[in-house]
């Protein structure tokens, strides 16, 4: 079968087609599809009462699947292709976009930021759009935070959601037990998360990449299980509710305020609208995300940032040059965790309610997917991937039950299509012969 | 003492299941150095296929238990290994030779896809399965506490032993096994010497999936409930088992699986059931910190 596929793939469309080989290949593919679909698609188990199961058959679905695969496989082999540009193909757009955005970084960044700032005030923006924008920005911030760990330092972290959770719970607990406001709790969230990052990182950062991945995954699960079971403090599966909303320099967003407190709309003498808080939250996360970005960009210029990138490229060389890998990794881990903690704190105050359900492995996988799909180390790529991955399920709401299915399939498809990420354009920040296109934001 | 022995039996049964899944992880990791994140879902699919096969056999009126078991075992292994093969073909093979994170992300995507695929097709509810193999015998009794070994537990442990023996022989003594060991040592060199690397990798996935399918069948029989989400935790634990035993080492995977099963059984028997998953992860972290190569793993040389 691979031989047949190879024949069809290597020969451009102009040479005679090997029809028999093509058909054989497509029939084989359809056969595999039939066998795959036969048990799980063709036979559906359902409750028939009394704790027993019955079977419903859907062999028509199996036949449809097989026919679709047959047609798809044939179409795939017969797709028009340009002999000379066979390599570039469909992903030329993104290759160009990647080069273009890295050349014109300041321009793209400025335009993007300007658009993000005015978005809530544009005529077509609705509450739904702003809410969606807020969610996208949370993921952008998380992506930028994780980018420090994965993209810059090259450490694979599958449990990033743990720090997000620590930040969120720190904010919620400080508000509930000590009565702190969001702004007072925010720095502590970051600090506590960073502390957790260092505590976790200290023993495990000696490990090789994949081991590190699985240990961080374990750590993420431990945090979630503890949050789930330590009911007296975390509220168990019920979580923590009534987390205070952020205020605008002490002015709360409310229709009416208790005695002696001026609300936002009273102070500015404008009509109250629930949208004001939504827009404010959006602007807060935008500011937080931009600060995150600026922070990581500056870090890259510092010796520590250089050390991260050097370590990512070659650990042994780093050690030979006298860089202490553990300390360098620990700093990346701690800083990444801190940024995740800030984002978690914002998440808590935005939702007003948190529970362990928000911090599952799927969340870690989504954040990691954003970083990797965007093109590791690329700040722009993170934005693009976050927009894509957050809005994709939204479009899928029309056929709600398929959205996670599509999400998974899209992750596979994007990786197969562009393994280095959508906007992959990885260059070291520092090179011996300065490059005229070397921008700051990538 | 009796209680201890009972937990030992329970742990061994659980450990056999984890060990069978762990082999799939360890073999794939040994050969292409990637964490096949979707392997847990393959096991979940195995469990579902086994339920469907059992129901179909029930409808066909085959009620002689050993025959039914044998048939279900074979069909489950067959259909599930096709899933294993397809996952490799679609999600991993195109990414061969690209950077290390790409197949991992692809695998995570595949895992999300398969979970939802089964959820949509088969429903999100737990699937109950009436016990097929009943009965057992009392191994020994002391202080009013009887240590029971059910026929099912015996079946699981024995089947695992048989499969492991067969499998070890296959790796040690056949042409295919030799090719696999060659690929695990140096994939490029193996290719140069005429080993069809793609085929070896495909076979590895098929073999891993077939063993995971057996684990899926065992879990269906043992617990009697299956849902679309069982793959994640079992997958993580089995990977932990593979790492614990020393990744890339087959006896290590089995040993790690049994140890994880024992840890879990004893932890829930003596401490708390809520934190039994935490115990597994804590053990994993401790092992990696103090013996990063696992129990039976070879230390890996870092070369420039």
Concise structural overview:
The complex is a heterodimer of chains A (442) and B (304). With 442 residues, chain A is mostly helical. Helices cover 66% and strands 3% of the residues of chain A.
Characterise the protein shown here.
The complex is a heterodimer of chains A (about 450) and B (about 300). Chain A is mostly helical and about 450 residues long. Chain A has 18 helices and four strands. In chain A, strand 1 and strand 2 (about 55) form a beta hairpin. The longest helix of chain A has 27 residues, at about 275-300. Chain B has a single domain (about 1-290), classed as ABC transporter involved in vitamin B12 uptake, BtuC. Chain B has about 300 residues and is mainly alpha-helical. Chain B is globular, with a radius of gyration of 19 Å. Chain B starts with a helix and ends in a 14-residue tail after the last helix. In chain B, the strands form two sheets. In chain B, strands 1-4 form a two-stranded antiparallel sheet. Chain B has a two-stranded antiparallel sheet with strand order 2-3. Chain B has eleven helices and four strands, in the order H-H-H-H-E-E-E-H-H-H-H-E-H-H-H. Helix content of chain B is about 75%, strand content about 5%.
């Amino acid at each position: 079968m691979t031989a047949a596929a190879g024949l069809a793939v290597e020969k451009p469309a102009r040479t005679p087609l090997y029809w028999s080989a093509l058909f054989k290949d497509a029939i084989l593919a359809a056969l595999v599809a039939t066998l795959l679909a036969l048990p799980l698609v063709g036979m559906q188990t359902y409750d028939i009462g009394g704790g027993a199961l019955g079977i419903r058959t859907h062999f028509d679905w199996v036949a449809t699947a097989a026919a679709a695969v047959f047609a798809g496989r044939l179409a795939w082999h017969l797709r028009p292709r340009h002999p000379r540009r066979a390599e570039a193909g469909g992903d030329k757009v993104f290759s160009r976009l990647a080069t273009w955005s890295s050349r014109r970084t300041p321009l793209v960044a400025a335009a993007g930021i300007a658009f993000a700032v005015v978005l809530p005030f544009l005529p077509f923006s609705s509450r739904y759009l702003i809410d969606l924008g807020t969610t996208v920005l949370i993921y952008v911030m998380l992506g930028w935070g994780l980018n420090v760990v994965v993209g810059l330092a090259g450490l694979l972290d599958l449990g990033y959601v743990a720090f997000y959770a620590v930040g969120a719970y720190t904010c919620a607990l400080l508000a509930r037990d000590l009565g702190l406001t969001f702004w007072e709790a925010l720095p502590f969230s970051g600090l506590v998360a960073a502390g957790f990052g260092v505590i976790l990182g200290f023993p495990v950062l000696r490990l090789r990449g994949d081991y590190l991945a699985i240990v961080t995954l374990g750590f993420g699960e431990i945090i979630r299980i503890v949050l789930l079971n330590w009911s007296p403090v975390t509220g168990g599966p019920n979580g923590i509710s009534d987390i205070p909303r952020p205020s605008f320099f002490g002015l709360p967003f409310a229709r009416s305020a208790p005695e002696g407190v001026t609300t936002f709309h009273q102070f500015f003498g404008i009509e109250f609208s629930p949208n004001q808080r939504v827009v404010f939250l959006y602007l807060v996360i935008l500011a937080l995300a931009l600060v995150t970005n600026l922070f990581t960009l500056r870090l890259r210029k510092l010796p520590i940032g250089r050390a991260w990138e050097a370590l990512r490229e070659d650990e042994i060389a780093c050690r030979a040059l006298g860089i202490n890998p553990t300390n360098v990794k620990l700093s990346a881990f701690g800083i990444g965790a801190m940024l995740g903690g800030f984002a978690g704190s914002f998440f808590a105050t935005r939702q007003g309610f948190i529970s362990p359900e928000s911090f599952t492995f799927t969340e870690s996988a989504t954040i990691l997917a954003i970083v990797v799909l965007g093109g590791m180390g690329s700040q722009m790529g993170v934005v693009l991937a976050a927009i894509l991955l957050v809005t994709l399920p939204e479009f899928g709401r029309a056929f709600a039950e398929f959205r996670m299915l599509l999400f998974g399939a899209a992750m596979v498809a994007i990786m197969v299509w562009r393994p280095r990420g959508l906007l992959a354009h990885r260059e070291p920040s520092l090179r011996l012969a300065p490059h005229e296109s070397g921008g700051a934001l990538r | 003492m009796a209680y201890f022995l009972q937990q030992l039996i329970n742990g061994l049964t659980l450990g056999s299941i984890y060990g069978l899944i762990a082999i799939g992880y360890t073999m794939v990791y040994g050969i292409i150095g990637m964490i096949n994140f979707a392997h847990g879902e393959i096991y979940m699919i195995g469990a579902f296929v086994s339920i469907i096969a059992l129901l179909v056999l029930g409808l066909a009126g085959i009620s002689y238990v050993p025959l039914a078991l044998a048939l279900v075992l074979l069909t489950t292994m067959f259909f599930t290994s096709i899933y294993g093969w397809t996952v490799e073909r679609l999600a991993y093979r195109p990414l061969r030779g690209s950077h290390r994170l790409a197949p991992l992300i692809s695998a995570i995507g595949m895992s999300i896809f398969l979970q939802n695929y089964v959820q949509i097709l088969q429903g999100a509810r737990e699937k109950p399965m009436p016990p097929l193999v009943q009965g057992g015998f009392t191994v020994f009794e002391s202080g009013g506490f009887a240590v029971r070994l059910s026929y099912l537990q015996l079946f699981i442990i024995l089947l695992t032993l048989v499969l492991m023996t067969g499998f070890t022989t296959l790796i040690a003594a056949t042409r295919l096994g030799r090719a696999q060991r060659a690929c695990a040592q140096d994939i490029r060199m193996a290719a140069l010497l005429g080993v069809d690397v793609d085929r070896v990798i495909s076979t590895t996935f098929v073999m891993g999936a077939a063993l995971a399918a057996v684990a899926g069948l065992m879990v269906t029989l043992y617990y009697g409930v299956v849902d679309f989400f069982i793959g994640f935790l079992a997958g993580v634990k089995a990977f932990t088992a593979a790492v614990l035993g020393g990744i890339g080492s087959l006896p290590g995977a089995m040993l790690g699986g049994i140890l994880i099963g024992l840890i879990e059984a004893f932890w829930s028997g003596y401490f708390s059931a809520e934190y039994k998953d935490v115990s597994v992860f804590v053990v994993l972290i401790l092992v990696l910190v103090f013996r990063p190569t696992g129990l039976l793993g070879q230390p890996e040389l870092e070369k420039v």
